[in-house]
Amino acid sequence: MYAKIFLVFISLFLVTCSNKNEPELQDCSMVACTLNFVTISVSVKDASGTAVALDSYEIIDTETGENLATNFNGEEYQYSKEQGIYPILSDANRVQYQNKSATLTFKGYIDNEEVINEVYEVGADCCHVSLITGNTEIVLE
After folding, report:
1. What share of the chain is helix, strand, coil (3-state, %, to 5)?
2. How far apart are alpha carbons 80 and 89 in whole angstroms?
3. Which residues are paired to 114 by β-bridges?
4. pLDDT confidence of residue 8
5. Class assignment of domain 29-140?
6. DSSP track, 113-136
7. Residue spans of alpha helices (H) in the chain
8. What is the C-alpha end-to-end distance of the chain, expressed in Å?
9. Block means of pLDDT (10 residues each) for the chain, length 141 residues?
10. Does this model's pTM top 0.85?
11. How deeply is 59 buried, as exposed, middle or buried, from its count of CB atoms within 10 A (0-12, 13-18, 19+)?
12. Domain limits of the chain?
């Protein structure tokens, strides 16, 4: 008799257990998003507060090795570069990072010398990308 009760109890326990290691994916089909286009940017200045124009930079997804900086170019990029502001991730990448986090490495170069190497943790929900951790104001000495 006790064996049957124990077997029923164990069966119920196993049926109701779930794997907590699997991330719960959010269903985005019914989510209303704002029309804002979010871009996570980094400001680079020297010790006196003057904007630093890097010769080049990379945003490397440490998991895939993909350089995301190739997504940023054109006139708006040139203006940002003059202001010392560098985009590292935008809503254009939202689907790629939706419902998960990723580690990105920002590498900045002047005269082919690496002067910046910063790590960022980013993610995205159904609507926008977000910065989890990382320094968005870099001061070069």
Report:
1. 25, 40, 40
2. 14
3. 109
4. 43
5. mainly beta
6. EEEEEEEEEEEE-SS-EEEEE--S
7. 2-16, 75-82, 94-97
8. 77
9. 46 45 65 92 94 92 91 71 91 92 95 96 95 96 85
10. no
11. buried
12. 29-140
